[in-house]
Amino acid sequence: MEIKTVNLLREWFRHYYNRYGEGLAPPNAEMREFAHIPFTTEDHTLMSRHQTLKKDEIARFLAEKSPRHVYYSTAYYKTPGAPTMEGKTWLGADLTFDLDADHLEVPCKKEHDRWRCPKCNKTGWGKKPGRCPTCGNPGLEENTWICDKCLGLVANETTRIIEEFLIPDFGFSKNEIAVNFSGRRGYHIHIYNKAVRQLDQRARREIVDYITARGLEPKLHGIPPIPGSHGPLETDPGWRGRLASCAKGELEKELARHGLKPSDDLWRRISEGYWDQFKGWGEKKWRDIAVRGSSLRSGKTDEPVTTDIKRLIRLPNSLHGGSGFKVCPVRDPTEFDPLKDSLVFPMSKTVEIKIFEHAPPIRIADDTYGPYSPGEELELPLGAAIFYLCNEVAEVVSGV
Amino acid sequence: MSTLLLPFTTEAAKHLSTLGFTLENVPSNVVELGKRRVLEAVEKGVVTYPSDEEQNLLSYAAARMLISLADKPSLTRKYAIAEAKAAANTLTKLDENKIVKTAENLGLTLLQQKTSVGGRPYPLRIHFTDYLRYTEHIRGPPWKLVNRILTNGYVLITKQEAARIVSEALRLHIISSTKKWSKNIPKQCLEAVKEIKKRIKPFKQVDMATLRGFDPSALPPCIKKILSDLKMGENVPHQARFALTSFLANIGFSTNQIVELFSTLPDFKESLTRYQVEHISGVTTGKKYSPPSCGTMKTHGLCYQPEKTCEKIKHPLRFYEIEKVRKSGDKDGKPS
């Protein structure tokens, strides 16, 4: 990043924190570790960690530093500022989930994510391969992008995890669940509940395994059904019910394929859990259905974020230095428009920028920008310009 | 059946106090009862409740006192496992009401709500956070949360499962309650402790250094954790035993060396262990099992505090290979 760009971004971020810095304190701020990454001209910038901030110091700190990224610990510590983990004394941690376009099979990845081999300069679209197909170099660079499609998919997934797992199965109430747009590629779910605070890494892994269906054994949920016994019902709670509804769906499809309609009697018996009324499937078919069903209905969440009890996570309402968007609290992800609602910089001002990396098209607020190619000079509204600058595909030509 | 039979309940403690039982005035015959209980627990891995209820209470109280005086974590752990087993046997015979009350004594809340799923009755439920805490050491797919009926924050459990969970709570209770004894410890107590300590098998330190090329510091954290649990005399679940055995067999440990490692287990039976170790290491079958992958370790809850190298690998053996090369490079001052 050139110095002109650094200065412009730092000034506009400062402007935001001056105005909105109050109210950025997370619950129990004094027990958290804070960390930030400043704006610099260097490629790799180190994170400053082990900072402590009182509730009323956060606004001033952010305005003063105007950092590129700000994080706080999901953990509560006795001495959050201690330089070592042992010295901090862990007291508990909120339960968090991270949903990211990276963890979903999003079809648009092929359209807007690029990778490059720093050795042989080979480039390609989509998810980066393990090694460069030309020279075999494993250290490929990745340029990810966002669009309405992938953000929409992540929003749906977030809602699904809350409504299919966190509320009905885990019994969390809506007011214990806070959702934030991460500022770029996804959503964070924070659970503020005393009972889960003390859970250790293993317990949290069990929670992730539950949501992602890792280690699920269909047999233990009654699949394949044992003749003469009560098989799973759609109305059964948790995974048992989910698997039953998947099996029922498959059965409907299968019968339709053969031009058959299930008799009322068959349907009634199945809804009572007597699957052996239907004799068409062998053990393998049942198992396939369970495997497909559990992968279809599982929640796609990033495991390490939930199991790491000392994780740093973006501070809600701070700015994401890779997009310029706000880490925005969200009431309902499916109603939320991340590319509009988390925009904080005015669109009435303009900045001249010069593109130096290929930039796929993107909608910001009500207009679509790009695609742009290296070398293009453009005068863009501030909010859009900051997005390109933060993504490091453009530099400032002239300031505002 | 009375809950008095369960010697760790508040009723039992109340009853005991009416008998005027204190450390200073503990009669020798009660100390003897306690000593026998500890020795049976530690040597055979079981506790047989005396048929006389009062004797059961007294011997439990005395045993707990001796264990706490001995102040040896590996002893406490073995003793706690045996007490938990005995409690589980009794608990399964109690009705749900009593199980709930007993659980309360150990600070564990179970709710009574009769439900039936798939024709199976679930008379009790437990909050999932408690479930995760108290089943941490109970492994196997049927106990994995994803294979349970979880609804509205609660895991449905059968009476047998409740008994197992409560007994696990007892085990943790015994392990975590430490009492500091000041002075005035009667002579007969000190002597009993001395005898117990003399009779317990010391942990046979397997000389890992004798194995050429073996570098214990290069072991992955999951395997290190199983080894340290073994050393502590913790009850190590079946999958962990398999993982450790197959891992060590694959890096060149002999059957003898592996069998010795298991000799600290509360339920150690040499011939059986030898047979199983030989089977896994391919001595009997010619087919050496490879240790479980990282994914399988995670599924069984055996992945423990993953390190940086863990991010790059999918198999614990790979971790060992990488770290061994890196560490030997460190020693020689070569770049890693």
CATH homologous superfamily annotation of the largest domain in chain A: DNA primase, PRIM domain
Strand order of the largest sheet of chain B: 1-2-4-3
Figure out the total of helices of chain A: 13
Beta-strand content estimate of chain A: 15-25%
Beta strand % of chain B: 5-15%
Set out the fold topology.
The complex is a heterodimer of chains A (400) and B (336).
Chain A: H1 3-20, E1 34-37, E2 48-51, H2 58-65, E3 69-73, E4 75-77, H3 85-88, E5 90-93, E6 95-100, H4 109-112, E7 114-116, E8 123-125, E9 141-143, H5 148-166, E10 177-181, E11 186-191, H6 194-197, H7 201-212, H8 238-257, H9 264-271, H10 283-297, H11 303-307, E12 312-314, E13 329-330, H12 338-341, E14 350-355, E15 362-364, E16 367-369, E17 377-381, H13 382-390, E18 394-398
Antiparallel strand pairs in A: 1-2, 1-3, 3-12, 4-5, 6-11, 7-8, 7-9, 10-11, 10-13, 14-17, 14-18, 15-16
Helix pairs in contact in A: 1-2, 8-10
Chain B: H1 10-18, H2 28-44, H3 53-70, H4 73-91, H5 96-105, E1 110-117, E2 120-127, H6 128-134, E3 150-151, E4 154-157, H7 159-176, H8 187-199, H9 221-231, H10 238-250, H11 255-262, H12 270-280, H13 294-299, H14 316-332
What would your notes on this structure say?
The complex is a heterodimer of chains A (400) and B (336). Chain A is an alpha+beta fold. Chain A folds into four domains: 3-103 and 147-208 and 302-338, Alpha-Beta Complex (DNA primase, PRIM domain); 109-143; 220-297, no CATH class; 345-400, Ribosomal Protein L9, domain 1 (3-Layer(aba) Sandwich). Chain A is 32% helix and 18% strand. Chain A contains 13 helices and 18 strands. Chain A has helices spanning 3-20, 58-65, 85-88, 109-112, 148-166, 194-197, 201-212, 238-257, 264-271, 283-297, 303-307, 338-341, 382-390; strands at residues 34-37, 48-51, 69-73, 75-77, 90-93, 95-100, 114-116, 123-125, 141-143, 177-181, 186-191, 312-314, 329-330, 350-355, 362-364, 367-369, 377-381, 394-398. The longest helix of chain A is centred in the middle third of the chain and has 20 residues, at 238-257. By secondary structure, chain B is of the alpha+beta class. Chain B is 53% helix and 7% strand. Chain B contains 14 helices and four strands. In chain B, helix 2 (28-44) packs across helix 3 (53-70), helix 2 packs parallel to helix 8 (187-199) and helix 3 (53-70) crosses helix 8. The radius of gyration of chain B is 23 Å and the shape is globular. The N and C termini of chain B lie far apart (66 Å). Mean pLDDT of chain B is 85; it is low at 331-336. Chain A binds chain B through residues 168-172, 195-196, 198-199, 201-203, 205-207, 209-210, 213-217, 220-222, 229-233, 236-240, 273, and chain B through 117-119, 127-129, 132-133, 136, 141-142, 144-154, 298-301, 303-305.
